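INFO batch 0412 | record 1 of 1 | parsing
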Amino acid sequence: MDINGLMDEILQQSTCKGRFTLNELLHYSTTQSPTGVAVFKEKGHTFFLVISGGEANGAMFVDEKGTLFGDSAVLRLTGKEEFELFPVMPSIADALVSRCRVFDKSHLKKNGRLDIPTIGTPTRQRIGVLCLTVRDGEKPLAGAHVAIRKGKVVMTGDVTDSAGRVCFRLLNGRYMCVVSDRLGERTRCIIEFHEPQVEACIDIGGTEDENR
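INFO prediction complete | emitting tokens
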């Protein structure tokens, strides 16, 4: 069985946790400490990042020429990939990492921009907490991925809890909020906040039913 077949067999026993850009995935891993395999597939090649202990500790890059493991695989990242994260048992993650360990994490940080950039003049901005509740009509949308963007830069991202709620610590300002789930992007809207803490509700408007 080839690498893609082996990984597909492992991932078939899991459920996708959400979709993340590389930057979002690294931030989510740091804050939530998941254990799983993140997958990015594009015509001709596939990336696998193995997440354990809050870090991307393993990597594989597979194309028609063969497979690269560990640091060699990470060097092929562009930072533009969008990964799907599948939780796996720690024993599975550890076994995978033992075969594709990433020793030099600076490659990931360079491509993923772990540090949240500061936009504008810091002296004129305050840090606040933005809490969003995502709903599909009257029903809270749990497990949705919410990304906060400033222009083309992804500032942060996280997954809604069982009540459809998610909170971010950000500089006050104007942001684009993008909500997606296993079906893909559901909605996007502009969020602007200038208070120490702001609560807002996003209703995706039943787009799931409209697409069926």
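INFO post-check: Confidence is low (pLDDT under 50) at residues 113-124, 206-212.
INFO record closed
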